[in-house]
Automatic annotation (TrEMBL), chain A:
GO molecular function: ATP binding
Span of domain ABC transporter: 2-237
SUPFAM superfamilies xrefs: P-loop containing nucleoside triphosphate hydrolases
Family: Belongs to the ABC transporter superfamily.
Descriptive protein name: ATP-binding cassette domain-containing protein
Automatic annotation (TrEMBL), chain B:
All copies of domain ABC transmembrane type-1, residue ranges: 23-202
Subcellular location per the Swiss-Prot or TrEMBL entry: Cell membrane; Membrane
InterPro entries for this protein: ABC_transp_perm/SBD, MetI-like, MetI-like_sf
Residue ranges that the Swiss-Prot or TrEMBL entry lists as coiled coil: none
Source superkingdom: Bacteria
Record-annotated membrane-spanning stretches: 27-49, 70-101, 149-173, 185-209
Name of the protein described by the UniProt record: ABC transporter permease subunit
Protein family per UniProt: Belongs to the binding-protein-dependent transport system permease family.
CDD domains attached to this UniProt entry: TM_PBP2
Membrane topology, as annotated: Multi-pass membrane protein
From TrEMBL, chain C:
Spans traversing the lipid bilayer: 20-39, 51-72, 78-97, 131-160, 180-201
Cellular compartments annotated: Cell membrane; Membrane
Pfam families: BPD_transp_1 (PF00528)
UniProt keyword list: Membrane, Transmembrane, Transmembrane helix, Transport
Family: Belongs to the binding-protein-dependent transport system permease family.
PANTHER family according to UniProt: GLYCINE BETAINE/L-PROLINE TRANSPORT SYSTEM PERMEASE PROTEIN PROW (PTHR30177), OSMOPROTECTANT IMPORT PERMEASE PROTEIN OSMW (PTHR30177:SF4)
Membrane topology according to the record: Multi-pass membrane protein
Domain ABC transmembrane type-1 intervals: 16-199
Organism: Paractinoplanes pyxinae
InterPro entries named in the record: ABC_transp_perm/SBD (IPR051204), MetI-like (IPR000515), MetI-like_sf (IPR035906)
Name of this chain's protein: ABC transporter permease
CDD domains in UniProt: TM_PBP2
Length: 336, 218, 216
């Protein structure tokens, strides 16, 4: 667990970057610091590995004040990933990944063998090992950056806008892999981003900062969307937060009605479309299963020509429908 | 060793061989070499930089020029052409050409190509692109090349004295010949001060002719 | 020219040998001295501009003046090769100290920062990360210094110690073109070869630079 105990950072110019922040970052979870630029989120992150020292207050890792520890040794035990990856241009991909193990005293050969396995873990083929960073795309560089941070198997990882320098398609892909990797590894991660969507998607806990280095709200993504503490948070998480909060629940408990005659099926029972006139069949616009999110159900109800979302079973056979007013009733009842 | 020679008022009248007179002749060689060298090197450097043709020459001109021993060149020219201003000028001009050519080329090449594209996009003709966009933007690099050329020539023009011409080298060569180290010291100091002053003048000129918009990111 | 060479091969070779070590020893010495000075210019930011200015003034002292002048300061004999070595070392330091500082300053702060965050201590970071990344810039400066030194040595002939420069003064005094030509050609060749060797070394020790430039 990483603890911020009444931490303040005032810069010599007089600006307060971090203003009496107290936080707990749970072990094995991803905590995302998010907020507008200049809100102190990066300063806070960098106080964890002593790249910045607090003016007052303490930062503790598992109860140990970082201020009392040797800087270099502390940092070797904390993975660090930054925007543009910050790879060493003069070292091959493999030697970049092997950096920290070598610093910790491993032989180059041992470190390289381990590095090769890590590359595979982050989705890079072995032939990339001998290349230099300049020969990689932005997304590939970022993967190497993650592998390098993981190389010494540190329990704690710091990530400073790790995915903001790549295009949306690659970012999407990196997000998926990040979630998969974190599910396996269960690191204690502190991540900084300015993108609230990224925070909601990747964070177990989200910390929203506001200007002046003040924490506006801490909570799970669901909590933030459902119950923003104030106007600033509500504005920051966005106007469609109601719709987005539906992403966190599945349609498992959503009641359905029996399939009506107006839904045209093929021989196997798969939906073909809605009969809206004598010879007029219009496509359903998609289907959902009980494992899909409520957000998808809402989306389908809106897209459907008749305002009804169609549920299918694992074989794709239609096994129920939910009209939009039933969905609305369900959501209203769920809110209590 | 002392500063007697430098501070002796008798050496500061304008008679032949006095310090002011040597400064003038020294400056004369420097300015002539810089002028001729610029007239030759600038168009070539700009042409190569603008068209991209012959980059090889521009890239290697710098090192090739530096590798030519000026003293050898000077003595070769004097042996071929006889004593006089011409062989000295040729040797010094050869020294001036590479840095100016290379910096003119590098100045144009280092430009943000999007700006050049934009200039073409708004309908400028090649000549207009060169004179209104590329040249003004390349000026900082170009001027730094010109300044290093000037520094080099000021220092090297002293060897003119070795083949019997004037300039501040006289103080060095003659002082050495008669073991008058005070005179040698005077020569060294005056040349160094002259070089620094000339560089300052050029730095001011640069501030004056380079657009303030290019000064911000330095 | 061929006849001149065959008749004077020993004198020419001796001049060439002297030229080589008079030019290259200062490169080595200057490089070793310039490294810590250049590093200081980065480590202590307010030192950078004074460093650049002092280097500029040193470089603008005419070589002839320095050659003549050093015996007085050092107490060496006027004909001592030491004068040339010290003078050229001064030029090399003036040139390379700035290059080293500029090279180190050119290292992307993101790279030094990520090295720090990974647990590098200052000295090891300098040796393992900053210097290697700055190497292309530093080696480019080393090329300039080497080539400049090789052509400057000959000015020493005016005070009696100048390697191939002695061929110039001899030819000039005798009004005889061959030795001058031979001297110029050998000097230029020597500079070209030395330059080429540094380029080869640079290729060998900075293999990554071949891939840069294509992508940011």
């Amino acid at each position: 667990m990483i603890t911020f105990d009444d931490v303040v950072k005032v810069y010599p110019g007089g600006g307060t970057a971090v203003d009496h922040v107290s936080l707990e970052l749970p072990t094995g979870k991803t905590t995302v610091f998010v907020g507008p630029s200049g809100c102190g989120k990066t300063t806070s992150l960098r106080m964890i590995n002593r790249m910045i020292s607090p003016t007052s207050g303490r930062v503790l890792i598992d109860g140990q004040d970082v201020a009392g520890q040797d800087e270099a040794l502390l940092r070797r035990g904390i993975g660090y990933v930054i925007q543009h990856a910050g790879l060493f241009p003069h070292r091959t991909v493999l030697d970049n990944v092997a950096t920290v193990p070598v610093l910790l005293g491993k032989t180059r050969r041992e470190a390289r063998t381990a590095a090769l396995e890590l590359l595979e873990r982050v989705g890079l083929a072995p032939e990339f090992a001998k290349r230099y960073p300049a020969q990689l795309s932005g997304g590939q560089q970022q993967r190497v950056g993650v592998a390098r941070a993981l190389a010494a198997d540190p329990p704690v990882m710091l990530m400073d806008e790790p995915f903001s320098a790549v295009d949306p398609v690659v970012r999407e892909q990196l997000h998926r892999e990040f979630l998969r990797l974190q599910k396996d590894l269960g690191k204690t991660i502190a991540m900084v981003t300015h993108d609230i969507d990224e925070a909601i998607k990747l964070g177990d806990v989200v910390v929203i900062f506001r200007q002046g280095g003040v924490v506006a709200q801490v909570g799970t993504p669901q909590e933030l969307l459902a119950d923003p503490a104030d106007e600033f948070v509500a504005e920051f998480v966005g106007r469609d937060r109601g719709l987005r909060s539906l992403s966190f629940d599945t349609a498992a408990e959503l009641p359905v009605l029996p399939v009506p005659a107006e839904l045209v099926l093929d021989e196997a029972g798969r939906p073909l479309g809605w009969k809206t006139g004598a010879d007029d069949v219009r496509p359903t616009g998609g289907t959902f299963t009980s494992a899909d999110t409520l957000r998808l159900v809402a989306d389908l109800a809106i897209l459907s020509p008749v305002g009804i979302a169609v549920r299918v079973d694992a074989d794709g056979k239609a096994d129920g429908i939910t009209p939009h007013h039933d969905l609305a009733d369900y959501l209203a009842a769920r809110r209590g | 060793m002392n500063l007697d020679y430098l501070f002796d008022a008798a050496h500061w009248d304008f008679s032949a061989g006095s310090i002011p007179q040597l400064i003038l002749s020294h400056l004369w060689y420097v300015l002539l070499a810089l002028a001729i060298g610029t007239v030759i090197a600038l168009p070539i450097g700009l042409y190569i930089g603008h068209t991209g043709r012959g980059s090889f020459i521009a890239i290697n001109a710098g090192n090739a020029g530096r590798s030519l021993p000026t003293l050898g060149l000077l003595m070769l020219m004097v042996t071929l052409l006889g004593l006089g201003l011409l062989p000295v000028l040729i040797a010094l001009t050869v020294l001036v050409i590479p840095p100016i050519l290379t910096s003119a080329y590098a100045g144009l090449r280092s430009l943000d190509q999007r700006v050049v594209d934009a200039a073409r996009g708004v309908g400028m003709r090649p000549w207009q692109v060169l004179t209104r966009v590329e040249l003004p933007m390349a000026l900082p690099v170009l001027m730094s090349g010109f300044r290093s050329a000037a520094l080099q020539v000021v220092a090297t023009a002293t060897v003119a004295a070795a083949v019997g011409l004037g300039g501040l080298g006289r103080l060095l060569i003659d002082g050495l010949a008669v073991n008058d180290y005070s005179r040698v010291l005077a020569g060294a100091i005056v040349v160094a001060v002259l070089a620094v002053l000339l560089d300052l003048v050029l730095a001011f000129a640069q501030r004056w002719i380079v657009s303030p918009g290019l000064r911000v990111s330095r | 020219m061929i006849t001149y060479l065959s008749n004077n091969s020993e004198a020419v070779l001796a001049a060439l040998r002297q030229h080589i070590w008079l030019a290259l020893l200062p490169v080595l010495l200057g490089f070793v001295i310039a490294l810590p000075i250049g590093y200081l210019g980065v480590r202590v930011p307010w030192l950078y501009h004074p460093l650049v200015n002092v280097a500029g003034v040193l470089y603008s002292i005419p070589s002839l003046a320095l050659f003549v002048f050093l015996p007085v300061v050092l107490g060496t004999k006027i004909l001592s090769p030491l004068n040339i070595v010290v003078a050229l070392t001064i030029y090399t330091v003036a040139l390379l100290a700035r290059t080293v500082a500029d090279g180190l300053r050119s290292v992307d702060p993101l790279i030094t920062e990520s090295a720090t965050a990974m647990g590098y201590r200052r000295f090891r970071r300098l040796v393992d990360v900053e210097l290697p990344v700055a190497l292309p810039v530093i080696l480019a400066g080393l090329r300039v210094a080497t080539v400049a030194n090789i052509s400057l040595v000959s000015v020493g002939a005016l005070i009696g110690v100048g390697g191939l420069g002695q061929l110039f003064t001899r030819g000039f005094q005798l009004f005889y073109i061959e030795p001058i030509l031979v001297g110029i050609i050998l000097s230029v060749l020597l500079a070209g070869i030395a330059d080429g060797v540094i380029v080869l070394i640079q290729r060998a020790v900075t293999p990554w630079t071949r891939f840069q430039g294509g992508r940011a």
